């Protein structure tokens, strides 16, 4: 049966369709949202950590994000083709398997003390995350009436930041706080005067980084076992198997709303990762904060993000998704201007406040893009996960801007100048929300 058939709509429930109650599978799938949230936000602070441990530039250290989000780009389409041929459950199992293997690769990477080996581990991890996100998002959309799909996805995504907060806490207390206190300048001196002592410090620090990932790999493997034995419903829409892959791709490329959604999603993921990655560099450069202290502000930002997600999910009952999206994008851009032009602690507060505006964006853009797509959503989801590649490209660009901002001769510090990139992202998202609203009004 098609999930888009008006006869099947049951506005009284988020999780009932065709007489079936999908609450339990919804809960099970939603647990995965926290799992990849943890991976995302234990990793963001590692950009600053690797820079200090291995004495590399901002651009080089931001390659952590290039490798991490590069896995999404590489695996999104293969994951979509896999679940189209098989089913959502098998896609989840492959995702959990790759995720676990990537975590375990941190041990040989740490022992070898090779930065590229850590990048490989991150890449494998996110090949698994690409499977999980390509599978879980459209699956959540299908577990109930079509008219409440965006609200259902926002509700499921509200649990993603819970995993993110846990990841941030682990990064703060069990990684950043336990790294050797030697500054970059002190390490550079050791590099010339006592290389053996520097190597010992680096090895200890890399072991500190690797241990939480090893434990995470064990947790993910337990999830693999749980999903292996679980019985999940097979959602089949009326148009299942009607379109070939080629026809589906052509349909998607001719769908302006979908194509613009993919572009907007790329800019959203880019701004999210930049804001949460470089808040540490901002606090260090502008206020002289220690990394662990700066990570505390990142955790406050995530707490605001979590609260805002639940509030925005409630507001979606009364406001069009495109209207809320546009309003919050304008708010995010305004706070970003504060981070650029206001010096000191108020500038840092402005960065923290940006998270209140970002909470709605990913699931809302996702829901707008896939609304009413039926079986085509399996492949369409790949494009939206591919858009997570925005997090692959933009953080290195911001890192390069921090390294080279003196080229522009501005009176602003380099880290403040670099937040021009998040500002551009919010402008694109605001225009996308306005465009969707305008076109929805025309069709009425």
Summarize the structure.
The chain is mainly alpha-helical.
Describe this structure in words.
By secondary structure, this protein is an all-alpha fold. Helix content is about 75%, strand content about 0%. The protein contains 21 helices and 2 strands. It has helices at about 25-45, 45-55, 60, 65-85, 90-105, 105-110, 115-140, 150-155, 160-175, 185-195, 195-230, 245-255, 255-285, 290-315, 320-340, 345-360, 360-370, 375-385, 390-405, 415, 420-440, and strands at about 15, 20. Strands 1-2 form a two-stranded antiparallel sheet. Helix 5 (about 90-105) runs antiparallel to helix 11 (about 195-230). The longest helix is centred in the middle third of the chain and has 35 residues, at about 195-230. The protein is globular and about 70 Å long.
Per CATH, the architecture is Up-down Bundle
In spatial order, strands of the major sheet run 1-2
Secondary-structure content class: mainly alpha
How much strand content do the residues show?
Answer: under 5%
CATH topology description: Growth Hormone, Chain: A
Shape estimate: globular
Q: Give the SSE string.
A: EEHHHHHHHHHHHHHHHHHHHHH
Number of DSSP strand runs: 2
| Poorly predicted spans | 1-12
Helix content: over 70%
Question: What is the level 1 CATH name?
Answer: Mainly Alpha
CATH H-level homologous superfamily name: MFS general substrate transporter like domains
Count of discrete domains: 1
SS element count, helices: 21
């Amino acid at each position: 049966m098609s999930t888009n058939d008006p006869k099947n709509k049951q506005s009284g429930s988020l999780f009932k369709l065709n007489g079936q109650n999908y609450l339990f599978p919804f809960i099970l799938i939603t647990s995965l949202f926290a799992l990849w949230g943890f991976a995302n936000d234990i990793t963001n602070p590692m950009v600053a950590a690797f820079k200090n441990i291995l004495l590399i530039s901002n651009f080089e250290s931001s390659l952590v994000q290039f490798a991490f989000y590069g896995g999404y780009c590489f695996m999104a389409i293969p994951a979509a083709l896999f679940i189209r041929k098989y089913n959502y459950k098998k896609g989840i199992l492959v995702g959990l398997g790759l995720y676990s293997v990537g975590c375990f690769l941190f041990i040989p990477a740490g022992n070898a003390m090779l930065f590229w080996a850590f990048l490989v581990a991150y890449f494998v991890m996110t090949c698994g995350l690409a499977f999980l996100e390509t599978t879980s998002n459209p699956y959540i959309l299908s577990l109930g009436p079509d008219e409440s799909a965006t609200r259902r996805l926002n509700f499921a995504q509200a649990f993603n930041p819970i995993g993110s907060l846990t990841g941030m806490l682990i990064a703060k207390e069990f990684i950043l706080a336990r790294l050797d206190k030697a500054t970059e300048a002190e390490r550079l001196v050791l590099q010339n005067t006592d290389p053996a002592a520097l190597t010992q410090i680096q090895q200890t620090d890399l072991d500190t980084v690797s241990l939480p990932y090893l434990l995470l790999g064990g947790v993910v493997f337990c999830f693999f076992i749980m999903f292996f034995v679980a019985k999940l419903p097979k959602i089949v829409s009326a148009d299942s198997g009607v379109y070939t892959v080629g026809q589906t791709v052509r349909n998607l490329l001719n769908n302006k709303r979908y194509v613009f959604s993919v572009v907007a999603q790329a800019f959203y993921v880019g701004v999210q990762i930049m804001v949460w990655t470089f808040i540490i560099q901002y606090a260090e450069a502008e206020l002289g904060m220690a990394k662990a202290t700066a990570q505390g502000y990142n955790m406050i930002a995530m707490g605001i993000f979590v609260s805002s997600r639940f509030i925005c999910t409630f507001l979606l009952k009364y406001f069009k998704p495109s209207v809320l999206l546009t309003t919050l994008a304008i708010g995010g851009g305004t706070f970003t201007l504060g981070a650029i032009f206001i010096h000191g602690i108020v500038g840092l507060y402005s960065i923290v406040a940006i998270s209140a505006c970002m909470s709605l964006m990913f699931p809302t853009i996702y829901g707008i893009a896939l609304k009413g797509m039926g079986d085509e959503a399996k492949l369409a989801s790949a494009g939206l996960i591919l858009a997570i590649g925005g997090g692959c490209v933009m953080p290195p660009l911001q890192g390069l801007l921090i390294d080279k901002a003196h080229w522009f001769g501005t009176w602003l510090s380099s880290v403040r100048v670099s937040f021009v990139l998040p500002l551009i992202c919010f402008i694109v998202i605001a225009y996308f929300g306005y465009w969707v609203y305008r076109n929805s009004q025309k069709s009425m």
